[in-house]
Amino acid sequence: MILTLIVIFLLEVLVLSLMPMSVTQYKAVLNYRDYTKLEYLAKGALDEVIWILEDNWDTNAESAWHEEKHAGMYKYKIDKSGDLSKKITITVKNDSIQRTYSCKIVRRYYEKNLTKLADYPVYSSKDLKVACLDRINSNSTEYPLGTGKNLYIENIQNPNGLNLAVNGNIYINSGNVQSFIEGYPVVDSLLPIYDIYGINQFIALLKSKFDGKIKTEGNLHFFTLETLNFDKGQEVMFIEASQKVTIRDINFKGLLIISGVSTLEISNAGLDGMLIVLGPGSVSARNFTVNGSVSFLGCEIKDPLDIKVNHDREALSPYEVYLSEDLGGKASSFYGLDVLEYKEVE
Predict the structure, then answer these.
(1) What share of the chain is helix, strand, coil (3-state, %, to 5)?
(2) CA-CA distance, 148 to 40, in Å (whole number)?
């Protein structure tokens, strides 16, 4: 009996000693739950602000406190920070916690011309897939690699400090992920937006204005651009409306625009200038060297691009006279709102 009493006493001491720990853990769980609820409440408030600004962009106001049942309370403030941007402050709270978030909302329009494409060593309005990111360089940190969606990297070896402007996620198949983090800064850059299907007017204007400097090929089931079928003195070449286009075993100097092609395959080719690919077709590249820039608007990149790019923005200035033509179509029409720099304010 004495032994039983001793055991009971020890168990009571153990239970009493564990109670403060259990209470602390319980409070931590409740605290995390409340923090998460407030985080979602802030995102809901941001959606409300976006809806208000889509309806009336000129709105500048501070709301009263609104209560959301079982979540907490929120309020927001909309301040003008420019003709095309607003500064947003969102505050959320419950009985014990208060959190504040800030962001910038930018009003976006379709680009009037293609000039901004020369700012990027590689630009894609959709997913961008590259075999080796180390082989893409820019002579200035001002000009990043840009993609409107996700960036897929097959391999990382020797990071070169290239800035990345990525609107989606970054996926790395192999290589040193830590060296990627240290060697490729991700920058907050507002990527240009284009109306892909309104560019036909731009092409027609370009042909009529620079008729002597432009050569047009295509309108065939299959077309191959090789040394036998292009004039080395031509500054601009269009290839359009073909089922399959192959570019191989050439070194082209100038502006190469490919539009309305179902399949584009590039192999063992060099380019000194710019390549712009327009339309919903697929693209693949093997052993492709570029001194200039490459842009894909609305294209699907089939496999990781085996491409080497040396980007020098000043060297591309001769092509701005062609890129500055009005795109037509929906150019300059309202596209939508983008949220930038969304973060919690301490």
Answers:
(1) 30, 40, 30
(2) 25
For residue 267, give the 3-state DSSP assignment: strand
pLDDT tens string 141-194: 899 999 999 999 998 888 888 999 998 899 999 887 888 888 899 987 889 998
The number of angstroms, rounded, from the C-alpha of 16 to the middle of its chain's C-alpha atoms is 56
Determine the 3-state secondary structure of 331 from DSSP. Answer: coil
Q: Would the CA dihedral through 232, 235, 241, 246 be positive or negative?
A: positive
pTM of the predicted protein model: 0.79
- How far apart (Å, rounded) are the C-alpha atoms in residues 79 and 85? 9
Identity of the residue numbered 197: Y
Closest CA to 191 of 260, 152, 132, 143: 143
Condensed to tens digits (0 to 9), the pLDDT of residues 288-305 reads 999 999 999 999 998 999
Alpha carbons within 13 angstroms on the beta-carbon side of residue 38 total 23
pLDDT range class, residue 102, cuts 50, 70, 90: very high
Q: What's at 128, amino acid-wise?
A: L
Token couple for 69:
């049942």
What residue has token string 């240009």? 192
| Phi and psi angles of residue 305, each rounded to the nearest 5 degrees, phi first | -70, 120
